[in-house]
Design goal:
single chain; mainly alpha; 4-stranded mixed beta sheet; two-stranded antiparallel sheet; 66 helices; globular
């Protein structure tokens, strides 16, 4: 421990026994030469030759060290001051290895290894050292003859990284960077002497092309293999090599700047200048000969010759092409030349307008040689800026073109200051041209007396030189408009305001003379969709300034609105001309195309502007109508503008005549129908935008106008618009219906009521058209149109409220009928679309019943399995995946059986097994990969939740466990029982030995089991059929020592949690459960469960349950029952007294509750409003129901809970009494059942498979009295509330249609849980969204709560309040009670959704702190809003579907 280095927790004290041999060996090697001399008694030291060799080595080492030091110093010298760090040039020694093993064999693991440079905080990371090691190689060596420079550099960098990187990273905890240089001084830049004239015709594109050539060495790995480059290297080596050798001989070895000095001397030598001149001259001559032989075109006469600047005779300038000078800029490397003030003044004098053309041309040439990035920062930038702006409009095209190229290179310098100056200068120049200042020979525009005016009637020909020159200027302007938003944050508000003001002023000129081509016309050619404006409006910083300027100068906005309002279908382009031109064919743009592109650009501006509230506030816009004195001003609102655009869409019946000559992709890009449709879809996708722009009667009626011929009764006409128009409108409405605001408008209309009685006209039109299209009543409707409009309906019916509105149209039936008519092979695409839309009915509980009734459940689950396993998205507008629908389907017995048959559950089981106990490849390994101890980790968490979502309800688990097992067990389990049997019920040595990771796999199975047995029915079934408790206790005994002590590990702790939770019953204040896992540094104080002597440690002290007798309520109940005629009045008075007493005391004692239930049920039986069922026969006429093990276990659990509450005494007859009551209750429920039908559902082949928890609750309320319990149940069975409180009551009941009774879906699911989801979406949207995000459904947890009467979730007083409210206040309070519990858990639901553990939280944790009386006002408010719909549907038992 002492010898360990400090980084590993030791003291770093050397162990002599380990280091003595190393030091001895080192000493022997060092003194071996002297020892040999001493042995031979030699009097001489090593020979002179040895001394000379040693001196040469030392000299070479010193020279190498000097070159490396100079290279590093030169590298650090070019860093900005803010990036310099404290650098240690001395070679740092690396720490020795202490048993670590390095990955690469070539790694340097020697003791005393050194690197060249160590820099503290070099990369800006605190307390981290950056290490560098320098390598210099000769690129002209024979070994590199066939390798490019890029490969050479890469090879040496990788060698250095293999040698040192791992050691520096792991041992030194620093960073390592190799620094590789070549003896040639770095990579050579290829000189581009001339390029093709067609490229130079467009300066910005040409310069981009040149830049790509200048970077050819770094992008082309074969660069150094080209013959031209090899010859050029030979000429350079022949001249530069001797110069470098001579300078090296003369250099001082102690000079640390020797490399920089030699480089500067070589570059300034006359030999190097002559070399450059000769190379450039030879290359130009060769290029001219090649071009002359290939084409008859003559190169431009602007070939430069060597000249001296007017104010300087010392600096020699060799003539390169203008674009090549940027490579010599001080921005990219240490400079070759700098501009003096005398030179700049001479250039400014030469650029004056009164100078001859040749003087201006030579001055412009000379200016272009200097680094463009340095021009803006020079002292005389303002006069230089004015001169360059004048040069842009020079009559000589050479000067104007060169000035534009210089502006482009300045822009490419990527500086915020440079970009701003270039943009404003260009805007001022263009404003001068189009604002009436003329444009010289190259200018044009509106109002100049001598300038050429481009008119709309003339069109625009890009092949014309003057048009091309103007397009080049606007192309540069467009590039800067796209780039400049990246610099917004670097500018202050004044600068941003200046840039925006220049832009708005320039573009506004286009609308002062509409007959001429203005700036906006050229911008539209380069940016038809106004992407620059979208970038400018993206950030709040710039958007504020843009909106302020548009408000101050409304000419641009007025022009945009006027352009859109005046656009008609006749102005659509009809000639076969490519939009935007192409590289091979610069087409002529006639007046129609220019107007259309102007329309597209204006549409892009409007689309972005209306996305923001500030842009919408600019409306209405005053637009002048007419010309001259007769003209008037009209106010154009947003609705007027969007209505006009929709009329344009309806007038365009075909796409091909708009852009017939371009490709299909380009047609769809510039098609006006899609442009307007995409704009409307963007508005519809946001709640704020759709609420203010589209959610009004005018817009929706206009959107649905094409459907009118098809939806009127008695008519079967087709829509008068094209299919593409119908699909576009359907897409807009689908996006609108997917948002909260849009869906609310569709369902409730403009009056924002909380619910709807009848469907709105918009929904009626959409539903009727869809039904007509599905049934074939609307002729000539294509399948694409049908599926598009069905998708609109889908956005509505996948919500509870939307399904309620669309229910009368039976869309599910029409989809099923269409599927039955299709040929599965020829109509595969349409069939998949219909199945997908039908599957989305499973988004709600009632929709799941409709899906079951359609007869296509099996087909939909097969489709669901395919889509889910492929991880495919549901759609582009829906915010939840197929997992949510799979969970909804699995909440019922019928749905889970179809999922089992489709292989969906088997896939989940196999995937889970693969994650828990290894992949298939692990079976070939001796030791499989390890897993974390906590099974609910990121690796297995998602797979576990996916399976729990399917099996969380008891009907689903019952069907899954009754699935037939394969005859021969597979290596990987594929059924639920096989998975539980291998992971949980490990009751033999062979089972434990079959697991590769027994401890971890068993722990995962226990955690999965813990969530499953939270359902009391699931626990009783597993206990009765598989001996769950006995198996877990046997496993606990294996962890017990001979002394009786138990080994506490993760598995025993989890088993103890399961045993305790299954044995003890109670709410959060009545029992406490041990934790799932051991906490760090904390002793496990919980006693281990023992069935023979259960500990009372887990049961909290009984809080003297309820002492309040009821007060006025008890006095009212003590009176005789009222006459039948007065029943309604008595019940109303009872509600008032009950609410008053609940508000005062919150709970009643059990005797008062029993009396209240007896009196209320008796009076309600005399009132037709409450009576819903009739019973035939008598209890004596029914055969006694057999006692099974599940009912026996349930009875013991109930009696144990009743004794804890003090409701039952310790008499042993309570179990048999409760069994007698449950048998009698079962006989009541089976008096009116359907005749037994053949069914594939195991849960419907006999009696009710679950335990009757409502009967158990009533038994405890009556304190174990058999007669009182049976009498109450006999009377209660006639009431409507019994069908929902008493789950067993409607099992295969004749009061339900046969189809619904044998669907395996209880009315509690498709009525109560359905309305819970409806109300959650409207009243508690955060909870509803949390369920959607988690993949778990509210209907599942609601069925879980209601089927076991909130046992284990609420305390006994709150369970009594639940029963009282549902019977006395109305059965609809069952729905409101569940919503109130969800609202109470809102914080926890949000938190556990974020942690991706919502299902476990809801099933394992009790509802702590819930008080039904505290939430009573909330429930009463819900009853006033939704009571009519809930009660109506409950009374019909959901049979209206």
């Amino acid at each position: 421990m002492l010898a360990l280095p400090t980084r590993l927790g030791g003291l770093g004290i050397i162990n002599p026994s380990l280091m003595s041999l190393y030091h001895y060996t080192t000493s022997v090697n060092v003194t071996s030469a002297l020892a040999n001399l001493a042995i031979t008694r030699a009097t001489l030291m090593p020979s002179d030759l040895g001394i000379q060799q040693l001196e040469e080595k030392n000299l070479a080492r010193n020279q190498r060290k000097a070159m490396e030091t100079a290279s590093v110093t030169e590298l650090l010298a070019i860093l900005p001051a803010k990036q310099k760090r404290s650098v240690e040039i001395a070679k740092p020694t690396l720490q020795p290895l202490q048993g670590e093993h390095l990955k690469y064999k070539s790694a340097n693991g020697e003791v005393g290894a050194r690197l060249d440079v160590a820099a503290q905080n070099f990369w800006g990371k605190d307390h981290q050292t950056a290490y560098f090691d320098v390598r210099i190689f000769n690129p002209f060596a024979q070994s590199y003859a066939n390798s490019s420079m890029t490969k050479c550099y890469r090879k040496h960098e990788l060698d250095k990284k293999r040698e040192y990187e791992e050691r520096v990273r792991e041992i030194e905890h620093g960073s390592f960077s190799p620094v590789v240089f070549s003896t040639a001084g770095g990579p050579l830049k290829q000189i581009v002497a001339a390029v093709q004239g067609s490229v130079l015709a467009s300066p910005p594109c040409g310069l981009e092309f040149e830049d790509s050539w200048l970077q050819l060495e770094t992008t082309d790995e074969n660069f150094h293999s080209y013959e031209f480059v090899r010859k050029l290297q030979g000429r350079v080596n022949a001249v530069v090599g001797p110069l470098v050798d001579a300078k090296m001989d003369e250099a001082d070895s102690q000079d640390t700047q020797v490399v920089a000095h030699i480089t500067q001397e070589v570059l300034s030598s006359s030999e190097f200048s002559q070399l450059c001149q000769s190379v450039v001259s030879d290359v130009k001559q060769a290029v001219e000969e090649i071009m002359a032989s290939e084409t008859s075109q003559v190169t431009s006469p602007e070939d430069q010759v060597i000249h001296s600047s007017p104010g300087s005779s010392s600096t020699q300038h060799y003539s390169l092409d203008d674009s090549c000078v940027s490579e010599l800029s001080s921005v990219n490397q240490t400079g070759i030349m700098f501009m003096s003030s005398e030179q700049l003044q001479a250039i400014l004098d030469g650029l004056k307008p009164n100078q001859p053309v040749e003087v201006r041309w030579q001055s412009m040439q000379h200016l272009s040689h200097f680094p463009p990035g340095d021009l803006v920062t020079c002292e005389n930038w303002l006069p230089l800026r004015a001169a360059l702006k004048d040069a842009l409009g020079d009559a000589d095209r050479r000067i104007a073109g060169l000035s534009l190229k210089l502006f482009y290179r300045m822009f490419r310098a990527h500086g915020s200051l440079t970009t701003r100056e270039v943009y404003t200068c260009l805007c001022e120049h263009l404003h001068h041209i189009f604002g009436g200042g003329g444009g010289g020979g190259g200018g044009g525009g509106g109002g100049g007396e001598d300038g050429y005016m481009f008119t709309l009637a003339m069109g625009l020909d890009p092949a014309d030189d003057r048009c091309l020159e103007m397009l080049s200027k606007f192309r540069l302007l467009s590039h800067i408009q796209i780039q400049i938003p990246s610099y917004w944050v670097r500018y202050n508000e004044r600068v941003v305001e200046e840039i925006v003001e220049h832009t708005i002023r320039l573009l506004s000129l286009s609308y002062q003379t509409p007959s001429l081509l203005g700036p906006i016309s050229f911008i539209t050619l380069l940016d038809p969709k106004a992407s620059w404006f979208r970038k400018w409006m993206h950030g709040h910083y710039s958007r504020t300034k843009v909106l302020q300027q548009m408000k101050l100068n409304q000419t641009l906005l007025q022009g945009v609105v006027s352009q859109l309002m005046n656009f008609t279908v006749k102005q659509s382009p009809k000639r076969n001309i490519t939009i935007g031109g192409g590289d091979d064919d610069l087409g002529y743009y006639n007046e129609f195309y220019l107007k259309y592109l102007h329309f597209a650009h204006s549409l892009g501006l409007l689309e972005t502007l209306l996305m923001y509230r500030g842009g919408r506030d600019l409306f209405p816009v005053a637009v002048p109508q007419g010309e001259g004195e007769d003209g008037h001003v009209s106010k154009v609102t947003i609705v007027d503008l969007l209505s006009h655009l929709l009329h344009i869409v309806y007038d365009l019946n075909h796409i091909h005549h708009v852009t017939a000559a371009v490709s299909e992709a380009t047609q769809r890009t510039f098609d006006p129908i899609l442009l307007i449709g995409n704009m409307l879809k963007k508005y519809a996708s946001g709640n704020a935008q759709c609420r203010s722009l589209l959610c009004n009667d005018t817009m929706v009626q206009l959107l649905l106008a094409p459907l009118k011929p098809s939806v009127h009764v008695g008519q079967s006409q087709s829509p008068l618009v094209s299919d593409d128009t119908l699909i576009t409108i359907a897409d807009v409405l689908a996006v609108l219906a997917s948002t909260e605001s849009g869906r609310e408008f569709f369902l409730r209309g403009s009056a924002s009521s909380s619910s709807t009685t009848t469907s709105s006209p918009a929904v009626q039109s959409i539903a009727q058209f869809t039904v007509h299209a599905l049934s074939g009543k609307a002729p000539r409707i294509t399948p694409e149109v049908t599926t598009a409009w069905l998708f609109v309906c889908r956005q509505l019916y996948n919500t509870a409220e939307g399904l309620h509105v669309l229910l009368p149209y039976s869309i599910h039936t029409h989809i099923a009928n269409s599927l039955n008519k299709l040929d599965g092979v020829t109509d595969r695409i349409l069939s998949a679309a219909l199945v997908d839309n039908l599957l989305n009915f499973a988004g709600t509980p009632k929709g799941l019943l409709l899906l079951q009734q359609s007869g296509q459940m099996a087909r939909c689950t097969q489709y669901l399995d395919h889509r889910y396993t492929q991880k495919l998205q549901v759609s582009k507008v829906e915010k939840f995946g197929y997992g949510y629908m799979a969970t909804q389907v699995a909440s019922t017995a019928a749905g889970v059986v179809e999922l089992l048959n489709s292989g969906f559950v088997s896939t989940l089981v196999r995937d889970l097994w693969t994650l828990v106990d290894g992949e298939e490849s692990d079976f070939r390994l001796t030791a499989p990969r390890t897993h974390p101890l906590d099974p609910i980790d990121r690796t297995t968490h998602k797979a576990m939740l996916s399976l729990l979502n399917i099996l969380s309800s008891f009907p689903a688990l019952y069907e899954a466990l009754n699935q037939s097992e394969p005859k021969e067990p597979d290596v990987i389990p594929s059924t639920v029982f096989a998975l539980l049997d291998r992971l949980v019920l490990v009751d033999s040595e062979s089972k434990s030995a079959a697991l590769f990771n027994y401890e971890e796999a068993h722990l995962f199975g226990l955690r999965l089991f813990s969530a499953l047995v939270t359902s009391l029915d699931s626990f009783l079934y597993l206990e009765a059929n598989y001996g769950l408790t006995a198996t877990l206790l046997a496993l606990q005994r294996k962890n017990q020592l001979d002394s009786g002590e138990v080994i506490i590990d993760a598995n025993s702790v989890e088993r103890n949690r399961i045993l305790v939770s299954c044995y003890y019953t109670g709410g959060p204040s009545e029992r406490q459960l041990p934790p799932h896992y051991l906490k760090d540094n904390e002793t496990y104080t919980w006693s281990m469960f023992d069935l023979n002597s259960p500990s009372s440690h887990y049961q909290l002290k009984n809080p003297d349950i309820i002492k309040h007798q009821g007060g006025d309520l008890l006095a009212m109940l003590s009176q005789p029952l009222p006459e039948p005629k007065a029943s309604t009045v008595w019940l109303k008075s009872l509600k008032d007294v009950l609410l008053l007493e609940l508000t005062k005391h919150k709970t009643f004692n059990t005797d008062t509750v029993a009396l209240l239930l007896q009196k209320t049920v008796a009076v309600q039986n005399c009132t037709n409003e409450y009576v819903r069922f009739t019973t035939s026969g008598s209890a004596e006429a029914v055969q006694a129901v057999y006692n099974n093990s599940m009912s026996d276990l349930g009875a013991k659990l109930v009696v144990r809970y009743g004794q804890f509450l003090g409701l039952l005494d310790s008499s042993g007859s309570h179990v048999s009494n409760l069994q007698q009551v449950t048998n009698h209750a079962s006989s009541i429920c089976t008096r009116q059942c359907h005749k037994r039908q053949h069914t594939y559902l195991s849960s419907l082949k006999g009696d009710y498979v679950g335990y009757d928890w409502f009967v158990a609750t009533v038994f405890l309320v009556m304190k174990g009295s058999v007669n009182q319990t049976v009498s109450l149940l006999e009377a209660f069975a006639h009431l409507l509330s019994s069908g929902y409180l008493w789950i067993h009551r409607l099992h295969l009941s004749a009061h339900l249609p046969l189809e619904i009774a044998y669907s395996g879906i209880h009315p509690v699911t498709f009525v109560s849980a359905h309305y819970v989801e409806w109300i959650l979406q409207s009243e508690v949207p955060l909870v509803h969204s949390a369920f959607r995000l988690s993949g778990y459904t509210p209907s599942q947890i609601c069925y879980h709560w209601l089927s076991q009467c909130f046992w284990n979730f609420l305390d006994w007083p709150e369970i009594c309040n639940y029963i009282i409210m549902c019977i006395v206040l109305g059965i609809d309070y069952q729905v409101y009670f569940c919503v109130a519990v969800m609202k109470h858990l809102e914080h926890g639901i949000s938190q556990y959704t974020h942690e991706q553990n919502l299902l476990v939280f809801l099933k394992e944790e009790g509802v702590c702190g819930f008080s039904a009386v505290a939430w009573l006002p909330f429930m009463q408010n819900l009853a006033s809003i939704y009571g009519h719909y809930v009660l109506q549907d409950m009374h019909s038992l959901g049979c209206s579907v």
